[in-house]
Design a protein that fits this description.
Largest sheet: 3 strands, antiparallel
Strand order of the largest sheet: 1-3-2
Radius of gyration: 18 Å
CATH class of the largest domain: Mainly Alpha
CATH superfamily of the largest domain: Winged helix-like DNA-binding domain superfamily/Winged helix DNA-binding domain
Number of domains: 2
Distance between the termini: 61 Å
Strand content: 15-25%
Number of helices: 5
Helix content: 40-55%
Number of strands: 6
CATH architecture of the largest domain: Orthogonal Bundle
CATH topology of the largest domain: Arc Repressor Mutant, subunit A
Order of helices and strands: HEHHEEEEHEH
Shape: flat
């Protein structure tokens, strides 16, 4: 593993956030000021293909990278915020329904986060007053 791979892996696994390539690049630049963004993308792909990091893809948003520890995600449909959550393991149920094994599943539940819900209620209250 190269020094960049090691550091990128450390940045991702030490974070409780779901970082974009740009955020990882910014963090990596603190230690390696001459690094270029292409190095980050190349190493992220290597780590992802090796199964060392998880890529979280949500339509119309940049990919984000996460630890490989099994967990699910809540995705705010309004602001795009990602939050970790652990739902009941669906592996056995999916195997039964599919009639056999599968590679993996990636559960994302879309909702409105508390901040966006609060914003919507505030806007509704303002509308009612007018």
């Amino acid at each position: 593993m190269t020094k960049y791979e090691k550091e990128i892996y450390h940045i991702i696994t030490a974070s409780m956030e779901h970082l974009t390539a740009e955020q990882i690049y910014t963090a990596l630049k603190r230690k390696y000021p001459k690094v270029v963004i292409a190095t980050v993308y190349n190493n992220l792909n290597k780590l992802w293909k090796a199964g060392m990091v998880h890529k979280v893809t949500v339509e119309n948003m940049p990919d984000r990278y996460d630890r490989t520890v099994k967990h699910d995600h809540l995705v705010c449909s309004k602001c795009g915020k990602l939050a970790d959550i652990s739902f009941e393991d669906l592996t056995a149920s999916l195997r039964r329904q599919m009639g056999g094994d599968f590679l993996y599943y990636d559960l994302k539940v879309f909702y409105l986060c508390p901040e966006c819900r609060h914003q919507e209620r505030s806007q509704e209250d303002i509308s009612k007053q007018q």
